[in-house]
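Progress against Task 2.4 (sequence-to-structure conversion) is shown through the following example record, which the project officer requested during the mid-term review.
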Amino acid sequence: MTFCDKEGMTAYLQSLVDSDLTPCISVAAAYRGETLYSGFAARKNDPLYAGYSGAIRHNIGSVTKIITGALFAKAMETGRISVWDNVKKFLPEYPYDDNTILQLLCHSTGFGSFSCDIPRPSIGVTTDEYVRAICSAAVRDYAPGTESRYFTLGYTLVMAIIERVVGMDYETYAQKMLFAPLGMNETTFDMHNVSPENTILPYNRDTDTYESDWCRRPTGDSGLYTTAPDLLKVGIMLNDAYHGRENPVFNQPQAHYLFRECTEGKFIRTPAMWMKGERDRYGFFSDFCSPEACGHTGYSGCMLMVDPTYEISIAILTNSCHLHMDWNNYRVICNRIMAEIR
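Structure tokens generated for the chain above:
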């Protein structure tokens, strides 16, 4: 496989910037273990983007959840935990005794998007303090397991469970088990490692403002900073593992677990990702993707898609909350990318 028109793709990315869909965009695509394309575009006359390149980090928002799901799979290697375990077994402060960890991963705990209204934690707040705040504020909206309503903070509860099982903080564990083995040298949860010189923050077009908080602590649902080439390494690894090829993170059964629909077809989700399925209910997958394609989007205009059938991985990073408001934007960009892989 090759990428047919790299110059044309970069011009296309610049056209997205020129149309004001996003101030910047970085894209990386791979087939099997080979990166076929890596390119970027940004506002040409804006001093803020003068040094923009594929090496600039982005806050990838909820794409972080793929990483948390993968790290939970690594924690399962300890032989001390399963997705079928009760949440309260590891978080005694959790308010209900009838939720499994799998329900946290699949957003079917009984909590909805507005079940818990608390601010994002500052860098000085501990995981335990934040967990107690979530558990004290969250109120159920429906019977667990009967629906799937997006509860983003559930993945921060999963993060807390991982920390308690493995006995180390999240950044240390992520670096040890995933980022360092994959050579993801520009990826971090720790905001001590990011700065205006190497990171671009999410942009709100409606208010013409950027997020300004450089002092948030890591969260398992939306706290990761990375680049498109780094994030693509996760997609490459998952495809390699799925097909039994050597990689430093997962074996084939573990990869199949991460790609397997786990809600008996009710919600079309895996333990770490959303799945396209026969009818794309999410609307961000390329029309050319197979039904087995999995991935996630993030509020800051970011996406990772991994298709194990065609062995293609695509990472799209922007800082555009506006782009994210219509997920069809991801779909049409992915269509353009996949059409070049021949």
